[in-house]
Amino acid sequence: MAKLTKRHVESIAPNTKERILWDDELSGFGLRVYPTGRKVYVVQYKLHGRTRRKNLGKHGVVTADEARREAKLCQADVARGADPSAERKSRLRSPSIKELGERFLSEHVALHCKPTTHYDYTNLLKNVVNPVLGGIKASEITFADIQAFHLKRRETPYQANRGVMVLSKMLNLAEDWGLRPMNTNPTRRVKRYPEEEKKRYLDEDEQERLGGVLADMLAQGEISRYVFAAFYLLLLTGCRLGEIQKLKWDYVTRTHLELPDSKTGRRRIPLPPPARRLLDSLEQREGNPYVILGTHGSGHYNDLQKPWRKIRAVAGLDDVRLHDLRHTYASVAVMNGIDPFMLKEILGHKNLSTTLRYAHLSDDAVQKAAGKIANRLAGALGNMA
Questions:
Q1: Where is the Tyr recombinase domain (predicted)?
Q2: H-type helices in the chain, by residue range?
Q3: What is the C-alpha to C-alpha distance for residues 378 and 217, in angstroms, rounded to an integer?
Q4: pLDDT of residue 31
Q5: Residues in contact with 221: Cβ distance below 8 Å, sequence separation at least 6, in sequence order
């Protein structure tokens, strides 16, 4: 045994068998010498009655002095109850963010979330998260990594915030699965970007204009009766796009749409007489269970966004999304005195706060209401100087 110094290490000749030479100054610090001549510094320690070794680096890449300092640090960690060798192996086994995302989708999202959520998370990970963070180990990703990702996506704040949200869910599960220490989720202190709430809905003139365009395009054969019905049903029921697009005749009664599953679970949607009459006008296709039929086959109409883009362009409503038809339903309901609690049930919201965000009153309605209040007060106060 001798002190492991640069000169001594370089003087050691390889043997026919692998061997470890121990330092005579620092207990547990040694040099593994392979028959090929490769030399690697190691530290040996005992924890919970078991002897473990950790490689500190190859001689030539790491100096003897650097390896000695690292060995002392490892021994200090062991004295505090840590296991450097196990931690290193854990890091090597740790999945990347991309691999963690795949497990998250298959073992959590597929079992506990709606198919639409699975689809959204899959696209978010593939197109937003993985190109930036996919290669980083889940055990090593830091606040700085996620903050940099969030900053890079600042021009698309919604995507940036949703990316951090899905990372937060994934890293919480990584803790539950033993892939990270508990309570180390680095997403917690990332400040989300403000998101502008979209309040677009159709006023009465726009509603009339849309109705006229739909009727003209139907008469000219530019859209089918089923596409025409789909857009009217969205307005007349306040349903979500998927609820109408994938509506089956088995769900339709004289007074309700009985959806066995939706974004918020089972739903019973009131079916007003105009919507009922519209449904009665639609022909059913033998062997096809869907209400909104495509041009052929046994499924439903696949892409209502395509005809909608044409319809809104003709109607001069280029900024109106299909989901804004649902906004319009909620706004008309509130402006006509429908109680928000009742509207919550009609729209199928879990929380009243969601309903209130949908129920955007128009400037004209607010102005008229304020005028009524002021006129009443002015009448009570009498003549104003």
A1: 188-371
A2: 6-11, 64-79, 84-93, 97-104, 110-112, 115-124, 130-133, 143-152, 157-176, 204-219, 225-237, 241-245, 273-280, 305-314, 323-335, 340-347, 352-358, 363-381
A3: 50
A4: 94
A5: none
CA distance 128 to 149: 9
Quick: pLDDT tens for 182-207. Answer: 889 999 889 999 877 667 888 889 99
Averaged over 1-6, what is the pLDDT?
A: 86
Q: What is the token pair recorded at 2?
A: 């001798």
Among 187, 141, 130, which residue's Cα sits nearest to residue 161?
Answer: 187
pLDDT digits 0-9 by tens, 12-35: 999 889 999 999 999 999 999 999
pTM equals 0.57
> Cα–chain-centroid distance for residue 350?
19
Helix axes 225-237, 323-335, angle to 10 degrees: 40
Confidence of residue 122 (pLDDT cuts 50, 70, 90): very high
Query: Would you say the CATH fold of 204-326 matches that of 97-176?
Result: no
Are 122 and 105 within 8 A, CB to CB?
yes
What is the average pLDDT across 349-365? 62
Q: What is the mean pLDDT of the chain?
A: 85
Please give the torsion angle defined by the CA atoms of residues 160, 164, 166 and 168, in that order, rounded to the nearest 10 degrees: 180
Would you say 377 and 218 are in contact if contact means Cβ atoms under 8 Å apart? no
Dig out the tokens for 326 from the structure.
């649902």
Each residue of 211-265: pLDDT tens digit?
A: 999 999 999 999 999 999 999 999 888 888 888 999 999 999 888 888 887 666 6
Chain position carrying tokens 């362009």: 313
C-alpha span between 255 and 233 (Å, rounded): 14
CA distances from 353 to 317, 356, 357 (A): 28, 5, 6
Which CATH code for domain 97-176?
1.10.150
At residue 98, does pLDDT exceed 80?
yes
Q: Where are the domains of the chain?
A: 6-92, 97-176, 204-326
Out of 3.90.180.10, 3.40.47.40, 3.30.160.100, 3.30.160.390, select the CATH number for domain 6-92. 3.30.160.390
Instruction: Give the CATH architecture of domain 204-326.
Output: Orthogonal Bundle (1.10)
